[in-house]
Amino acid sequence: MKNIFSKAIVRTPAHNLGHGLTEAGLGCPDMELTHIQHRDYIKYFESKGIAVTVLDAVEDFPDSVFVEDTAVMIPIDGGVAAFLTCPGAQSRRGEVERIKPVLSSIADEVYQMEGDGLMEGGDILLMGNTFFVGIDSRTNYAGFEQFEKVARKFGYKCVPVPFDNGMPHLKTELSTLDDETLIMSNRFSMRDEFSGYRRLVVPTGEEYAANCLYMGNCLLAPAGFPASAEMLDKNGFSPDYIDMSEFRKMDGGLTCLSLRW
């Protein structure tokens, strides 16, 4: 099986990452270790044949390493469309203008959120030809409607998934393991929106392990969650594991650190 994407964009962590948004309560990241973990993330992508563009740090925006929130990459015939978001977190909105020139030079088509629409890429989960869109304090229905109009143009279905926050994004506790399987926290396990898929539920206390990164020919999962690792193994999954301890302190996960297509 080939990778489901061949290119990625990441952004070097800002030195003031510890000043960013977080509700984790795990303290400030060790920046030396943060940079090591970020380099390991890039090396993993490259080891799988994925071309990675590394953007410079933006010190004006502590959260800017979580580049996924600035746009949604929409696979289209022969290329990719980029939908530039408008983050619900006002302190992050300037990040979109920083990424815009980069995506405008790469994408075949570029769209941008307007008016009252709010969206962060961490709330968007693509499963086959369906985009699941978390509706919360970071992404609203006005944003969903604008995104749906664009996605539908390219043959995608969009499904809103409203939830009470308690976590930054939909993908914080919900992600893809393969073309038919989702991994999720208990809060999503009985949701009708996901009734057509196989669902694996991470043990209580290991909700962070529900943010995995499915790449087609491989699966990447956060290290340090033994019960979830055992569950994955028993269900036929053999992911690679990577340490995400410092990004976890800032509410960030594996999917947050890249834009992929």
Automatic annotation (TrEMBL):
<comment type="similarity">
    <text>Belongs to the DDAH family.</text>
</comment>
<dbReference type="Pfam" id="PF19420">
    <property type="entry name" value="DDAH_eukar"/>
</dbReference>
<dbReference type="GO" id="GO:0006525">
    <property type="term" value="P:arginine metabolic process"/>
</dbReference>
<protein>
    <submittedName>
        <fullName>Dimethylargininase</fullName>
    </submittedName>
</protein>
<feature type="active site" description="Proton donor">
    <location>
        <position position="169"/>
    </location>
</feature>
<dbReference type="GO" id="GO:0045429">
    <property type="term" value="P:positive regulation of nitric oxide biosynthetic process"/>
</dbReference>
<dbReference type="GO" id="GO:0016403">
    <property type="term" value="F:dimethylargininase activity"/>
</dbReference>
<dbReference type="InterPro" id="IPR033199">
    <property type="entry name" value="DDAH-like"/>
</dbReference>
<dbReference type="GO" id="GO:0000052">
    <property type="term" value="P:citrulline metabolic process"/>
</dbReference>
<feature type="active site" description="Nucleophile">
    <location>
        <position position="256"/>
    </location>
</feature>
<keyword id="KW-0378">Hydrolase</keyword>
<dbReference type="GO" id="GO:0016597">
    <property type="term" value="F:amino acid binding"/>
</dbReference>
